């Protein structure tokens, strides 16, 4: 997004995270049909760590 569209680094990170959120929210109903919420909630710590790591990595990469 930076080289192709000329976005500033922070704007590119924000747009990337927003697009990722749209993708996750779109895929969530299909995935919940295949796997129960109870089974997923048992792994909430893994999801939280992945989210925190991606946010920290995006921030470091943008600064």
Summed up:
With 63 residues, the chain is mainly α. It contains 4 helices and no strands.
Protein described:
It is built from four helices and no strands. By secondary structure, the chain is an all-alpha fold. Helix 2 (9-34) packs antiparallel against helix 4. The relative contact order is 0.13.
Shape: elongated
Number of helices: 4
Pick out the low-confidence regions. none
The proportion of strand residues reads under 5%
End-to-end separation: 16 Å
Q: Give the helices and strands as they follow along the chain.
A: HHHH
Count every beta strand, where a strand is a DSSP E run of 2 or more residues: 0
Biggest sheet character: none
Helix/strand-derived category reads: mainly alpha
Computed CA radius of gyration, to the nearest angstrom:
15 Å
Mean pLDDT: 85
Q: Helical proportion? A: over 70%
What are its keywords?
single chain, 63 residues, 86% helix, mainly alpha
Topology:
Layout: H1 2-5, H2 9-34, H3 37-41, H4 44-62
Helix pairs in contact: 2-4
């Amino acid at each position: 997004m930076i080289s192709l569209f000329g976005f500033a680094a922070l704007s590119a990170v924000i747009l990337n995270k927003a697009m990722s959120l749209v993708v996750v929210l779109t895929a969530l109903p299909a995935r919940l049909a295949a796997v129960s919420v109870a089974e997923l909630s048992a792994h909430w710590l893994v999801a939280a760590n992945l989210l925190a790591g991606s946010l920290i990595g995006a921030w470091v990469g943008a600064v």
